[in-house]
Amino acid sequence: MSSATSTALFACSRCFSRHPFEELSPGEQLCKECRGSFPVVKCTYCRSEFQQTSKSNTSSICKKCEANVKAYGKPTACEYCNIIAAFIGNKCQRCANSERKYGSAVTCEQCKQRCAFDRHDDSKKVDGKLLCWLCTQSLKRALARTKQHLSSVDKHKHRSHKSKHNHKEKRKSDSMKGNGNDLSMGDAPLEKKSKLNPLQGLFSGELDPNSSDHVVAMTQLKETIASLQKKVQQKEMELLSKDKLITELKAQHHNDTTDLRIEMKNKERLNETKFSLMNSKIQNLLKEVATLSKSAKRNNKNIKSLTNDNSGSGTDSPSTN
């Protein structure tokens, strides 16, 4: 039985075509064609990668966060990882579950923030480091890219080595067909090239003289791979720092808006209380004015009556005499 028939095949979750398990995407289990037509995006809230299921729906929110938004509203920033995914309380679901399982959070060795959780298992560490979830995902992506690049370089090297081997065999067969003079004449440039290329001494004498060029190309490729790996790590660190800055700014903006709303509500309450107090004072003052005006009118009436009585008694006194 051949190896192709012995390997188990698994169906794609969208087109139902059968492929090896390594060719299917993790999580959604999609083949290469479906992955090309439906891209992988990061969720706006939980920052986890997911595959879009339709071309018409280009939302960048995963199904779990979309259901949580409908149930609990928009989330706030997590107090550990600063990801805006805290739907209930001040912690996201990932940090809350990790804290329940592994205890309190510790400092991440990459971003130096208190957002990692020690699982007490060295196999769970990435490159021997205790990292948080964001740093772990970014480092895994970087390692996968470098591994893919190295595999492509190894394939190219294998093809080039195979083609050079076939070329060498062809040259051997051609040299066997030629006469002895041709062989003697052909040995001189080979010796000269071997003297000019000291790297040929490391290999067997049966290799073709062009192998030194292959070694030089391999060293150049290794140097370019190392430089590209450094650039990729730098870019990953820059993207990670930018993502953290964006999350921090969003969290600060959210906190500022909540503080402003609280201040506005408090000021409205103070204004309402002051307005009610002023109204009550005005009503009391109006009542006092009304009572004073009534008392003033009564006093005026009493004074007039007294003056009238006094004037009447003054006119009657001479007639009695």
TrEMBL record:
Sequence ranges of Polar residues compositional bias: 302-321
GO cellular component: nuclear speck
Basic residues: compositionally biased ranges: 155-170
Region of interest (Disordered), ranges: 146-191, 297-321
Alphabetical list of Pfam families matching this protein: FAM76
Entry keyword set: Coiled coil
Family: Belongs to the FAM76 family.
PANTHER family per record: LD21662P
Name of the molecule in the record: Protein FAM76A
Biological source species: Pieris macdunnoughi
Organism classification: Eukaryota, Metazoa, Ecdysozoa, Arthropoda, Hexapoda
